[in-house]
Amino acid sequence: MPIFRLAMHPASEGDALMLSWGEEGSLHHALIDLGRTKNYHALKPRLQTVGTFELFAISHIDADHIEGAVPLFRETALPFAARNVWFNAYAQLVDARERVRDFETLGVDQAEKVTVGIKASGWPWNSQFASRIVSTDSSETAAPLPLAGGLKLTLLSPTDHQLTRLLPTWERALAEAHLRQEDKDPVAQAEVEGREVLGGLNVEVLAARQYSGDSTRPNGTSIAFIAEFDQRRVLMAADSHADIIEAALERLGHSAANPLKLDCLKVSHHGSKANTSPALLGLIDCTRFAFSTDGSRHDHPDAETVARILKHDPERQKTLIFNFRQPNTEQWDDEALKARWHYDCLFPETGEEGIEFEL
Fold this sequence. Notes:
- By secondary structure, the protein is an alpha/beta fold.
- The protein has one domain (about 5-185, about 195-359): Ribonuclease Z/Hydroxyacylglutathione hydrolase-like (Metallo-beta-lactamase, Chain A, 4-Layer Sandwich).
- It has helices at about 35-50, 65, 70-75, 90-100, 115-120, 160-165, 170-175, 205-210, 215-220, 240-250, 280, 305-310, 325-330, 335-340, and strands spanning about 5-10, 15-25, 25-30, 50-55, 55, 80, 85, 145, 150-155, 225-230, 230-235, 260, 265, 285, 290, 320, 345, 355-359.
- An eight-stranded mixed beta sheet has the order 8-9-10-11-13-15-16-17. Strands 7-5-3-2-1-18 form a six-stranded mixed beta sheet, with no helix packed on it.
- Strand 2 and strand 3 form a beta hairpin.
- The radius of gyration is 19 Å and the shape is globular.
- The model is unreliable at about 100-110 and about 185-200 (pLDDT under 50).
């Protein structure tokens, strides 16, 4: 059987994801984000082993997704090659603004480290899009985009509007991600502090809490897509806004009566309660949910998100997949809860961080 795998490498509170597909011995690979600086350094030997990626996607400019790309592009010799790079920088935001004719007054004219690095690498940058904008408003996204080896990508986010909305806060977002040219390289994150495990999880109560969607502009620009290979699908949600994904799925013809069949949802924003809505869960048919986070900054995944997933589909057997065993994930490894809500937990092997599994 052809291989289709997702690896969620240790990325602190962020993402460093790898899709692999094809036949054993001749696999193709895509890399999505690089986590924090220390995560890139730990992952570098694996990247060197791969050698060439069909796609290197930097989903958006939050530091826990992009910070590791800064030391990557400072390397004298890059540890891998990429046949395609997807990344929306300042120029893409400006071009998206032109397409939606939303002219706002701006004073930002600041190069960022990753943009400079991609240009210097010589890797093809957004070359699958005539406009060079990775957006669902680019005409190329009307059909799935092919990669070598038979992988197909259906772009769900961002829209031109979401990219345009980031322009007024671009400088601040760059500063927070340490991407301005004058910013010093970020210090490796401190050791994870101990967290108190919540007791007495009540799925009914947690799932019933009012949903309030994410409105942060950088997250709204997340590159999110469906990856399909050998009739298997995974939705790589980055930190995307639920309403953007909902609208994209509805445009593709999906509804509560015709949900999208997924083999896995890589849950948006590390399981934040503001990024996986009941409406989104109603548009997909999925029993495996993957969470990438060590819980060190925002106590992700939020209990409300896991509870919504369990409550939405209470009878079928489900699997929660975590790349760290940490207090916010370990609390779900409870036999009574698993029996009541029909799910299992998949964790890294004892003493390990990060996890790889078949889709």
